[in-house]
Amino acid sequence: MAKAKPKSKTVYVCGDCGAEHNKWQGQCAECHAWNTLSEFVVQPAPSAVASVGARRSGYAGEATGAPRVTALTEVAATAESRALTGIGELDRVLGGGLVDGSVVLIGGDPGIGKSTLLLQMLGSLGEALAGLYVTGEESLAQVAARAQRLGLPLGPLKALAETCIERILEQAVAERPRVLIVDSIQTIWTEQLTAAPGSVSQVRESAAKLTRFAKETGTSVLLVGHVTKEGGIAGPRVLEHMVDAVLYFEGESGSRFRVLRAFKNRFGAVNELGVFAMSDKGLREVPNPSAIFLSTHSGPTPGSAVMVTREGTRPLLVEVQALVDQSSLGNPRRVALGLEQNRLAMLLAVLHRHGGVAAYDQDVFVNVVGGIRVQETAADLPVLLAVLSSLRDRPLPEQTIAFGEVGLSGEIRPVPNGEERLKEAATHGFKRAIVPKANAPKKTKVGEMQVIAVERLAEAIDACI
Ligand code: TYD
Ligand code: MG
Fold first, then answer.
1. Most buried residue, 74, 190, 386, 400, by most Cβ within 10 Å?
2. Are residues 124 and 221 in the same domain?
3. Is 158 found in the same domain as 30?
4. Residue pLDDT, tens place only, 67-124
5. Is residue 14 located within the same domain as residue 127?
6. Which ligand is closest to the CA of 227, given by its number?
7. pLDDT at 433 (0 to 100)
8. Is the beta carbon of 135 within 6 A of some atom in ligand 1?
9. Among 52-61, 176-185, 196-205, which is the least confidently predicted range?
10. Same domain as 324, residue 206
11. Residues 418, 384 share a domain
């Protein structure tokens, strides 16, 4: 006897926060974003995906048994098992290797090197861990040509050109790779939905299926995600919530350096950085990147300051440049590249109020050298010093570094790991450091470097400009 056909259901999903609504409306009731709802037809699941092979691999597809409540004392907490990818900088960002059954999303601008990195990773895993590279953007011939050019061992590399998630999972169940790469999630679609590939509902549903597959079979899944103009991963925000780790690949278009940053990581530290250089043989690791973000000036230059930032677990010397120029606009420009714009506006207000320096009639441009993005507040003091140096057209004293958070009342606040930052600067031959008082060591010298401790913005300004 034929069963009654289950009905499909229409819901409206917010592209920003992923909230579901029963009817369409102009504004999302959850996150209040406008025009972000799109239609999402949920078809009842047909029979479980590839149930034949599924049983073999332990992947039950959609059909799972009844849930059972368990006291956590009964659960044996096992440390996650990891596999080293063989690319040290990637392992570092992942928190010490690729965790079995984890889902990692890698986002970045087109052409930054996402496909190259993942293919190199598969090549480096080689025979040790079977991998499968699913390409939805390039043809198999293109992938093979790239692998050849990168000089990877072609033997263990397996690829699949397919965009339908049901068929991908069918193949994955049959091949049983330990690492599955999907390039890119925006090209993947499921038969269960009528929406176009790349739409919010398709991306969300395909990613959900891949996540389920990863958790049930212990396969590590890496998804490539496109980024929007604003720099977020295209598609629903929920994608970032669904996965275990979100990595961003960043870099300036003119520069050959690329920075991989952990934005979210359930198995490691966030803001950990991995540094690579793009060469004609693909991405090369830069294991000691401390000084690559300094530009090479022949002498002291106005508008330039060097800071020691600590992104993740290692200190980096980074140069900030500022250009301050008389504005012809009623509303002068505030442009921050590699820093947060609002923070710059706030710092300029503090500079006016507590440093007695007005910049309200000046255009202010600030750039972090090397295309790196600095998120920590330790950049406050060096940014203000660079701005002031440009405004007065006077360089900072030679071989000077600075770090410190600037508070709204003009105080210079300490930042974490001051000692480590100072050591790094001293190792690189810097002669003078301007740092928050609470970060300064008891002695006024670290190696050959003189440490100037400051409590107020005015003191910092007096100390160097
Ligand atoms: P790709 O990995 O295709 O970028 P994505 O997948 O993030 O879009 O990177 C392609 C860019 O890298 C392209 O501009 C060429 C450059 N490239 C090299 O410079 N050397 C190489 O060996 C390879 C493979 C790519
Ligand atoms: Mg690509």
1. 386
2. yes
3. no
4. 888 888 888 777 788 999 989 999 999 999 999 999 999 998 888 999 999 999 999 9
5. no
6. 1
7. 95
8. no
9. 52-61
10. no
11. yes
In a domain, residue 52? The reply is no
Centroid of ligand 1 to alpha carbon of 113 (angstroms) = 5
pLDDT of 404 strictly over 70: yes
Query: Rounded to an integer, what distance in angstroms lies between the CA atom of residue 234 and that of residue 381?
Result: 34
Bridge partner list, 441: none
Angle at 246 between CA 378 and CA 60, to 5 degrees: 155
pLDDT, position 52: 41
Q: Is 110 in the pocket of ligand 1 (CB under 6 A)?
A: yes
Q: Is 282 in the same domain as 302?
A: no
- Measured in whole angstroms, the distance separating CA 436 from the mean position of its chain's CA atoms is 29
Q: What residue's CA is closest to ligand 1, atom 21?
A: 282
> From atom 1 of ligand 1, which residue's Cα is the shortest distance away?
113
Structural domain includes residue 460: yes
Pocket test for ligand 1, best of 118, 278, 284 (most atoms within 8 A of CB): 278
Q: How confident is the model at residue 428 (pLDDT cuts 50, 70, 90)?
A: confident
Alpha-carbon distance of 133 to 414, in angstroms, equals 46
Task: Tell which one of 105, 116, 279, 284 to mutate to probe ligand 1, the residue whose CB is within 8 A of the most ligand atoms.
Answer: 116
Query: pLDDT tens-digit profile of 192-221?
Result: 888 777 778 888 899 999 999 999 999 999
Q: Ligand 1: does its nearest atom lie under 6 Å from the Cβ of 258?
A: no
Structural domain including 442 reads 292-464
- What values do phi and psi take at 59, rounded to 5? -90, 115
Structural domain includes residue 50: no
Pairing of strands 334-337, 362-368: parallel
Going by their DSSP bridges, the two strands 220-226 and 179-183 should be labelled as parallel
Ligand 1 centroid – CA 211 distance (Å): 27
In the structure, what pLDDT confidence band is assigned to residue 49 with cuts at 50, 70 and 90? very low
User: Do 136 and 263 reside in the same domain of the chain?
Assistant: yes
Q: Is the pLDDT of residue 421 over 60?
A: yes
Does the CB atom of residue 146 touch ligand 1 within 6 A? Answer: yes
Nearest CA to ligand 1 atom 14: 111
Domain tally, the chain: 3
Ligand 1, atom 9: closest residue by C-alpha: 113
* pLDDT attached to residue 235: 61
Cα distance between residue 104 and residue 191, in whole Å: 24
Kindly identify the ligand whose nearest atom is closest to the C-alpha of 137: 2
Q: Is residue 64 part of a domain?
A: no
Distances in Å between the Cα of 367 and the Cα atoms of 328, 342, 350, 383, 391 are: 21, 14, 19, 9, 15
Please report, for the domain that includes residue 259, its CATH number. Answer: 3.40.50.300
Q: Considering just the CA atoms, what is the radius of gyration of the chain in Å?
A: 26
Q: Whose atoms come closest to the Cα of 107: which ligand?
A: 1
